[in-house]
């Protein structure tokens, strides 16, 4: 056997073996896979968002969220975060009116994800996410079911999130709000470092507590691609989403089937740093 044959065989194996996802890999920006931090793992996450365009108005909204995640054990992940933002709005029909801009601190958020079934050892991945937020203008609690199925040696991941949220929002006076959400996505590991995903979001908002009334305010839909680059311990993700023209708004007229108070475009950037 030639002396260099074992080395060539090892290099060929590295090329042919497909890249696999790490246990805490999250290739999406708007939904959660069932992969969580390992026991005692830490991660610092910084999210940036830019929302653009409203019906009849020039609009730009900047959002930020800083989050710290901790793997309590191999099945439970805990997180704490704070969110903030700034927006600028100007009506198209009244160019002489000065644009309005204001900043806002959204408050403190807490989150827990319990992994009931591990996608790498069980037929599917199953998790339950609980999220609570409290701030000057909003208080909410949300629960979400996380589903995941992997294919092609974990190279392709299909993920679905189904959730509900109840809360109170302040716009002069406090009022009840709630929502039902269905998010779905597919992510594919192109190489060891790069992955590409497609994300879809559907949200139905209510101006009352869930099941306490049928006063639906809006139904909005978004879809778009996400690209992720991993250079452990750093990860960067960039995604773009467009509002789809299937939306419905009973509280205000729609413009070409778009929700009046929902941005036409959403751009997100996330940078994370692992500490384990």
Which labels suit this protein?
276 residues; Porin; 13 strands; 4% helix
Which helices and strands occur, and which strands form pairs?
Layout: H1 5-16, E1 42-54, E2 57-71, E3 76-91, E4 100-117, E5 125-134, E6 138-151, E7 156-171, E8 173-189, E9 194-206, E10 216-231, E11 234-243, E12 248-249, E13 265-274
Antiparallel strand pairs: 1-2, 1-13, 2-3, 3-4, 4-5, 5-6, 6-7, 7-8, 8-9, 9-10, 10-11, 10-12, 11-13
Describe this protein's structure.
This protein has 276 residues and is mainly beta. The chain has a single domain (5-274), classed as monomeric porin ompg (Porin). Helices cover 4% and strands 62% of the residues. The protein has one helix and 13 strands; from the N terminus they run H-E-E-E-E-E-E-E-E-E-E-E-E-E. It has one helix spanning 5-16; strands at residues 42-54, 57-71, 76-91, 100-117, 125-134, 138-151, 156-171, 173-189, 194-206, 216-231, 234-243, 248-249, 265-274. Strands 1-2-3-4-5-6-7-8-9-10-11-13 form a twelve-stranded antiparallel β-barrel. Strand 7 (156-171) and strand 8 (173-189) form a beta hairpin. The radius of gyration is 21 Å and the shape is globular. The two termini are 42 Å apart. Mean pLDDT is 85; it is low at 9-20.
Mean pLDDT: 85
Shape: globular
The number of helices is 1
* Sequence stretches where pLDDT stays below 50 over 5 or more residues: 9-20
Q: Give me the CATH superfamily.
A: monomeric porin ompg
Structure described in brief:
The chain is mainly β. The protein has one helix at residues 5-16, and strands at 42-54, 57-71, 76-91, 100-117, 125-134, 138-151, 156-171, 173-189, 194-206, 216-231, 234-243, 248-249, 265-274. It starts with a helix and ends with a strand.
């Amino acid at each position: 056997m030639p002396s260099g044959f074992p080395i060539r065989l090892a290099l060929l194996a590295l090329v042919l073996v497909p890249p696999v996802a790490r246990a805490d890999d999250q290739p999406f920006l708007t939904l959660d896979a069932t992969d969580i931090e390992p026991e005692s793992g830490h991660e610092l996450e910084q999210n940036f968002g830019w929302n653009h365009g409203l019906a009849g108005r020039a609009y730009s909204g900047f959002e930020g969220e800083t989050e710290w995640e901790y793997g309590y054990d191999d099945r439970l992940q805990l997180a704490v975060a704070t969110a903030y933002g700034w927006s600028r709005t100007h009506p198209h029909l009244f160019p002489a009116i000065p644009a309005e801009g204001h900043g806002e601190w959204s408050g403190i958020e807490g989150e827990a994800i319990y992994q009931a079934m591990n996608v790498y050892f069980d037929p599917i991945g199953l998790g339950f996410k609980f999220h609570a937020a409290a701030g000057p203008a909003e208080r909410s609690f949300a629960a979400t079911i996380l589903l995941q199925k992997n294919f092609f040696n974990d190279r392709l991941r299909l993920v679905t999130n189904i959730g509900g949220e109840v809360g109170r929002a302040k716009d002069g006076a406090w009022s009840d709000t709630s929502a039902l959400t269905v998010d779905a996505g597919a992510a594919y590991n192109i190489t060891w470092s790069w992955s590409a995903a497609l994300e879809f979001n559907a949200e139905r908002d209510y101006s009352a507590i869930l099941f306490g009334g049928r006063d639906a305010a809006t139904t909005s839909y978004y879809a778009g691609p996400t690209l992720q680059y991993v250079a452990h311990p750093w990860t960067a993700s960039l995604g773009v989403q467009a509002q789809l023209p299937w939306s419905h708004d009973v509280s205000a007229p729609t413009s070409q089937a778009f929700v009046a108070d929902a941005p036409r475009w959403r751009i997100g950037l996330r940078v994370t740093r692992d500490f384990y």
